[in-house]
Amino acid sequence: MVKTKIVDIFVDLLGVSAEEVTDDARLIEDLAVDSLDAVELSLELEDQFNLTVEDHEIEQLETVGDVVNLIQGKLG
C-alpha cells in the first residue's frame, strides 16, 4: 500500500510511467527529480501519509526504494 501510493505520487508529480518507478530508480539520474520536485515530493509525502519529512531527510534520498524505506520507517 505504501509503495503503491509513492509510485502514484511520482507518476502524478513527474509525469513518468509507473513502470519507471522501480525501487532501484535513481531520483536525479533516472527520474530527473530537481530541487523543486524534491520540495513538492516532500509536501506530497507529508500530505498523503500524515507525517513530517525533514529537508535533510529528502536530501539523503537517492532511489525510490530509499523513499519507500523512509516512509515505512516513519509509519512504524
Write the layout of secondary structure elements.
Layout: H1 2-14, H2 35-49, H3 55-60, H4 64-75
Task: Write a structural description.
This protein is mainly alpha-helical and 76 residues long. The chain has one domain: Non-ribosomal Peptide Synthetase Peptidyl Carrier Protein, Chain A, CATH 1.10.1200. The chain is 61% helix and 0% strand. Helix 1 (2-14) runs antiparallel to helix 2 and helix 1 packs across helix 4 (64-75). The longest helix is centred in the middle third of the chain and has 15 residues, at 35-49. It is globular, with a radius of gyration of 11 Å. The two termini are 14 Å apart.
In DSSP terms (H or I, runs of 4 or more residues), the helix count works out at 4
- What Rg is obtained from the alpha carbons, in whole angstroms? 11 Å
Question: SSE order in H/E notation?
Answer: HHHH
CATH topology: Non-ribosomal Peptide Synthetase Peptidyl Carrier Protein, Chain A
Major pleated sheet: none
CATH class: Mainly Alpha
Give the name of the CATH superfamily: ACP-like
Low-confidence segments, given as residue ranges, are: none
**N-to-C span:** 14 Å
Q: Report the helical percentage.
A: 55-70%
The structure class reads: mainly alpha
Question: What's the quick description here?
Answer:
The protein is built from 4 helices and no strands. It has 76 residues and is mostly helical.
